[in-house]
Amino acid sequence: MARLLEMRGISKGFPGVRALSDVSIVLDGGEVLGIVGENGAGKSTLMKILAGAFAADSGEMRLDGQPFLPRRPRDSLQAGIIVIHQELSLVPDRSVAENIFLGHLPRGRLGGIRRTALNRDAQALLARVGLQVPPQTRVRELGIAQQQLVEIARALSRRARVIVMDEPTATLTAAEQKILFATMAILRAAGVGLVFISHHLEEVFETCDRITVLRDGAAVETRPAADWNETALIQAMVNRPIEALFPGRHATAGEVVLEVDGLGCAGRFSDVSFSVRAGEVVGIGGLIGAGRTELLKTIYGALPASHGRVRVQRREARIRSPRDAIAAGMALVPEDRKAEGLVLPFSVRSNVALSTLRRQSRLGSVIVRSRVDRMAELAVQSLRRRTPSIRQPVRSLSGGNQQKVVLGRALTTQPRVFLLDEPTRGIDVGAKIEVYRLINSLAEGGGAVLVVSSDMIELLGLSDRILVMRAGRLAGTLSRNAFSQERVMQLAALG
User: Fold this and answer.
1) Are 135 and 97 within 8 A, CB to CB?
2) Is this model's pTM higher than 0.85 or not?
3) Number of domains forming the structure of the chain
4) Are residues 163 and 261 in the same domain?
5) Can you give the pLDDT at residue 412?
6) Average pLDDT of the chain to the nearest whole number
7) Looking at the structure, do residues 65 and 176 belong to the same domain, yes or no?
8) Is 425 found in the same domain as 406?
């Protein structure tokens, strides 16, 4: 049988950059092919060539065994090749049905839209993807997961043969991810070929039949998913051993900087006590819902403490708000950087300056732009962040660089205590290594670092000690010589 899709020897260059070099992938109907790699590995360029947005410099493509040469995106759409981008392309004020058939609405003889046929056909497609909403519903009334299913229904309206999903779970909750994965299973059963691009390796293992690794514009290796493990996959992506992901740290634990004594937040966690020393990185592990995020937010004053005390540098800190925490020498990098850590339409400069505007002002009310620019440039340089301008909108940056902006703002307050909640969530492996280096430098500079992470390898690789939470209580503390995945999971699941 002919392959559904073949891309052979694809190369593409831009001025001064070789984006792809002799890349080959194949895809069968009813198969999910995972494509992974760091930012800049060539994933997006390869998919844009498939979608007809770019022309390859060399190489060939075949669809159902026949030569395929799209000269514009419409050619790929008409051939049944659909790319669903991370940023959805729906029209919020139009109905679900209109979005599904956008560009090929059923029309009558006089050019008007045949509403009855539109809604009937849309309802049939919604049923195929398992979305139970009236087709007349406006898209802005739907959740993100439901909007993603509308995108998939739109792909099916084009008689999709190949659907590319680029970071489809980036904004989804765990429950919404299950809906998406169930829909992918339906598409596979119908013979659709799926390309799944994600930085979340656990999702790649869960959904994909085969996995291709791209690195520096080249296809390094393709194997059945069952023949990969996370360590081998990361090593193939970054071309260095897994141990090299966590640079060595040269810091000696000093005086106690943060003390938490019997802290609790009503209905969320209770009676948590621990301390963190200067130069120390303490990890917090546990299952989702154990109270880890709530603990950091309560220490920082974003949630009210119902009992207990917090001391910073041996002085009791009366923290009723994040402003009090900043004044006490704390900084929080929140779990959801887009919702809680950034103002996306603002520039890098404005986001970095948010926590120190009073310091950058004259008479407490007039912002001195030269001070803000100087401070933002210094923060950007300290993060090794390369950006065309500190005036670049934050929304245009990659996830890894957005996270660096959040970290940069934290540094401007010159804290001694760093509260980092899932600091590498949703960023590629290369960006993770840069964040790990920064965490090490914070500790080496005398900071006390508290890190919540759901990534077991990260938790074990970064931490000097690990606190494990279970059901709102501290289940145990592990010193480095007692670290193991099994021990962490045992404490998290059983106490």
Assistant:
1) yes
2) no
3) 3
4) no
5) 77
6) 85
7) yes
8) no
Supply the range of the domain harboring residue 375. 343-412
* Amino acid type, 300: Y
Model pLDDT for residues 422-451, shown as the tens digit of each residue:
988 777 777 788 888 889 988 998 999 999
Give me the residues of the chain with pLDDT under 70, please: 1-2, 39, 86-87, 170-173, 240-244, 355-389, 391, 398
**HEC string of the chain?**
CCCCEEEEEEEEEECCEEEEEEEEEEECCCCEEEEECCCCCCHHHHHHHHCCCCCCCEEEEEECCEECCCCCHHHHHHCCEEEECCCCCCCCCCEHHHHHCCCCCCECCCCCECHHHHHHHHHHHHHHCCCCCCCCCEHHHCCHHHHHHHHHHHHHHCCCCEEEEECCCCCCCHHHHHHHHHHHHHHHHCCCEEEEECCCHHHHHHHCCEEEEEECCEEEEEEEHHHCCHHHHHHHHHCCCHHHHCCCCCCCCCCEEEEEEEEEECCCEEEEEEEEECCCEEEEEECCCCCHHHHHHHHHCCCCCCEEEEEECCEECCCCCHHHHHHCCEEEECCCHHHHHCCCCCEHHHHHHHHHCCCCEECCCEECHHHHHHHHHHHHHHCCCCCCCCCCEHHHCCHHHHHHHHHHHHHHCCCCEEEEECCCCCCCHHHHHHHHHHHHHHHHCCCEEEEECCCHHHHHHHCCEEEEEECCEEEEEEEHHHCCHHHHHHHHHHC
